[in-house]
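Let's practice the habit of predicting before peeking. Look at the sequence and jot down your guess about where helices and strands might fall. Then scroll down.
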Amino acid sequence: MLGEYVSATVVSTATNFIMEQETAFTRTYRTYIKLRETGLLELKFWHSNGVDSTWDGGKVARGSMPGGNWKIESAYVAVGGMNRDGSIIPGTASKVSFDGKDSKEVVPAEQFWSDPVLLDLPPGQELVFSWTISTDGGRSFPYNTEGILVSAFEADGHKAHEVQADSFTASENRLVMPAFIGYKKQVKERVVFVGDSITQGVRTLQDGYEYWVARIADGLGADYGIWNVGSGWARAYDAAADGSWLAKSKQGDIVAVALGVNDIDIGNRSAQELIDDLSTIIRKLKQNSEQDGVRVILFTVPPFNFIETREAVWRTVNETIRTSPPEGTDYVFDIAEVLSCPVPEEHRIDSKYMSSEFDPHPNGEAGKQVADAFLKWFRAQSL
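Done guessing? Here is the structure:
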């Protein structure tokens, strides 16, 4: 699917929500993204018009739900200034086209590529992607909702071409981006990280790139293609359904699966149900991967301060992963061991790694510790 292109960023643009508005609108979305390399880059954007993973209880957005009808009125890439205030550097914008056209009508469940576009990105600067989207109302485009990890802005109307920030206001919880931001690059290996908000990096510093996937990417360097498809609220059964989300994971030579927290929590899955879902994911990856000889790394389930029944499920699942992982698992990485309190409180995340006093999402320091442990482990495996 991705061919000569690898992910240009560690930012996850996996989708877990969908736009639903009664009236028609035209709106511009502008996002600042740190790329893994700078200089003259050949970029290409791929999109999948569907929801990857279930949000909350699934009343609005469910895994593999198709998007609706919408239109890309125009799209641009540009270089952003250091302020991330909604503006772009004058003279740096290049138009993004689709099959030679400036606009693109998108239909439910459609998957499509942009044409290649060149961008000369100076060191220390960020890519700015701007696109104007219109809908006739109703259910339309998928996006990611959460406390977003990068600076993003919105403006009513056709504003994708605008240089100044005057029309734009900051978005707190809506990341509207293509599903894949690629650049032409030969790499040693493509590594895909599929997981939930902990993989995505939720609750770490905005624009800080301090979550563990970002730090692992820095440690491995640009010779490894890293695609983060972590998605807030995601469950293993979303991936096991073998829809659009797992299709992304199948692009990896190495696929790291880090799921289970939301299955145990809001999903209320039993230990056997979760193990069965993880087994299905691994079997599907092995059977249907676009990469020959794909290797699967299965993570233990991170500690998330579960109690009572959920704690028992967490313990059972992790013991199974450590001692008798699902068939097809090539390697096990014990993320829980890195983040947990000492025995017998190992079901709890060490307080110094919590994003707040009441929130067990890992913070930036946790990202550093996990990345350091993973990189040491990864190199020892000769992967």
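How did you do? Residues 153 and 171 are 5 Å apart (CA to CA).
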